[in-house]
Amino acid sequence: MFSIEQLQAFVATVESGSFSAAARSLNKVQSAISQHIINLELDSGFELFDRSGRYPQLTPQGKQLLPYAKATLQQHNRLKQSAAQIFNHEHADLTIAIDEGIPMTQLYAALERVLEIYPGVNFEFLAAASVDVIELVESKRATTGILFSELDLPAGIDFESVGSLQFDVYVASQHELAQVTSPNLEYLTLHRQLVVRSKTTKTSSFQKAYSPNVWYADNYYILMDLLSKGYGWGVLPTHMVKTLVEQGTIVRVPIEFKQLTWQANVDVIQHPSVSAMPIHTRLRAAIRDLLTGSQQ
């Protein structure tokens, strides 16, 4: 039957583009990779690659098998990680990375539910833009991330949705955009835009720069302060600006024919090396109700 070595050779060849490159990536000799592929083809009963050209090309049957091979290897890695944790009696402390735009209304109750079962656990909290939260979890700097949903999560990262938050477009009450009703969205691009992006200059899927004149911040609090001082317009969570709106410091951008308010999903993510451990499962379950009542 198929072996892990065969599947590794198969996937590595596809991802690297050749048998020799796959051998280098797996730190093996090319003949070993070629033999694993041949054995996998014999076991499966069909050819995986067309070898008539300079580089091997997947056959239709190989394309069908590829996603199953990748999924099997991912599960195999999870099994190895879980076994290592059990063997070493690992009980890692919990590091939570969270986007500053997400309210913490229910977080403390979630922590209490974890402490009921694991009273000796230590917590660390990191504040970052959603894109940075992904990188913190992927690099294992954080064990859990709470962020606004991103379309491009790295392969293998475990995630689930925990709710949604409302966003809108705001501007300072003394700003030119607050004095008139803009005829369309394009009119906003005539004015400076304020955008949140990561420390590595990456933007989220819904924090895009549209204006030619853009100022950036790496968190919503700086963005909100710049916006309230009249430096430009920007997209902010409605719960964050509620007080400033009530005070009249900032307003929703008046615009004709268009309702700009939308809901952004919030996800909790964990690295697969820890997500199956009971303490991390408990934390994930506890923060499912994180946003309950936060927008009341």
UniProtKB/TrEMBL annotation:
<feature type="domain" description="HTH lysR-type">
    <location>
        <begin position="2"/>
        <end position="59"/>
    </location>
</feature>
<protein>
    <submittedName>
        <fullName>LysR family transcriptional regulator</fullName>
    </submittedName>
</protein>
<dbReference type="InterPro" id="IPR036388">
    <property type="entry name" value="WH-like_DNA-bd_sf"/>
</dbReference>
<dbReference type="GO" id="GO:0000976">
    <property type="term" value="F:transcription cis-regulatory region binding"/>
</dbReference>
<dbReference type="GO" id="GO:0003700">
    <property type="term" value="F:DNA-binding transcription factor activity"/>
</dbReference>
<keyword id="KW-0804">Transcription</keyword>
<dbReference type="InterPro" id="IPR000847">
    <property type="entry name" value="LysR_HTH_N"/>
</dbReference>
<dbReference type="InterPro" id="IPR005119">
    <property type="entry name" value="LysR_subst-bd"/>
</dbReference>
<keyword id="KW-0805">Transcription regulation</keyword>
<dbReference type="Pfam" id="PF03466">
    <property type="entry name" value="LysR_substrate"/>
</dbReference>
<dbReference type="InterPro" id="IPR036390">
    <property type="entry name" value="WH_DNA-bd_sf"/>
</dbReference>
<comment type="similarity">
    <text>Belongs to the LysR transcriptional regulatory family.</text>
</comment>
<keyword id="KW-0238">DNA-binding</keyword>
<dbReference type="Pfam" id="PF00126">
    <property type="entry name" value="HTH_1"/>
</dbReference>
